[in-house]
Design brief:
single chain, 59 residues, two-stranded antiparallel sheet, 2 strands
């Protein structure tokens, strides 16, 4: 973070190429899903499973 002056007002701004919190989360999670667990499932079926509405299928 940097503090800069703009028209007499100090502003705190992100410095350089520091990744956002969301970007760090996505980078950490990328590639962690087990595709065999959800293979052949629709988006609605996956969402039901993630919400706990049903158990993952035995495959």
């Amino acid at each position: 973070m940097e503090v800069i002056e703009v028209d007499g007002t100090l502003r705190i701004v992100r410095s350089g190429e520091t990744p956002t919190r969301g970007r760090r989360l996505v980078d950490r999670m990328r590639g962690t899903a087990d595709s065999k667990e959800i293979e052949g499932m629709s988006t609605d079926e996956i969402m039901e499973m993630l919400r706990g509405d049903r158990l993952a299928p035995d495959r």
